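call fold target=Pimeloyl-ACP methyl ester carboxylesterase
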Amino acid sequence: MHTLLEHVERIDTRLGALNARSIGSGRPTVLWSSMFVDSHTWDRIVPTLASGSAIPRRFVLIDPPGLGRSAPLRRRSSIAEAADAARDCLDVLSPGEPVDWVGNAFGGHVGLDLATDATSLRSLVAISSPTEPIAPDLRRKIALLAPLLRAAGPVGPVREAIVGAMLTDASAADPTTLQVVADSLRRPTKASMSAALRSFIVDRLDVTAALADTRVPSLFVASDDRGDWSPADAERAADLAPRARAVTIAGARTLIPLEQPDALAAEILAFWAGLDKPDARG
């Protein structure tokens, strides 16, 4: 990442100012990160995407509402409203030109909403983004830990639960990988992260029925170690969305761009290359 020039800007949206890091120039390509973490989870993959892309690209790495260096989230929101905030960003970043969207978990959920409108997106890559609501056992676990998050922040058992959900044991044992997550957790306020948890995880809706409304070519990426979006789940979702396919990346849990950047980059680059074929966009 240090070899690529970076420009940072704040983009006003209905959910506050979002922090955006722009790298390179060319086709607009937006990367939106997972819950709890921020745009630095993309740092390992962007150089490979930049060097491997057949065309020049402007990569825009956005910290989601209430996370990273974006403005604190001060009220309850929803993924639908986060998608509207993303549209606010696109109006500034790429007026009149659809973007290639790459979203990890929360970012994939936002992308699924945007993908119903071909004027917003040219394509969608949704990484580790379950289309169903959270499972009852996870809902119960969150209910137990949410008060501690509000009171003390992502420490102790809360931090352990987040890291366990984000990273495989092997990834968590790597100090450099773990530090990216730890640094991300320190940036938001306790209140902001709590509001984001409620808004974008606990209140997440089932969007399975809406997959048929997808209007852009899509790649659904599962890992081999995330129970709530298995390879079979991703395949079923791809079967429901027009012009979608699914792939699986081994050796990762939720933060596939951080854990397996090279394998993920290869799949994304192949997907992008296919978009320019005559029959790719239908």
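return ok
The chain has one domain: 6-275. The chain has eleven helices and eight strands.
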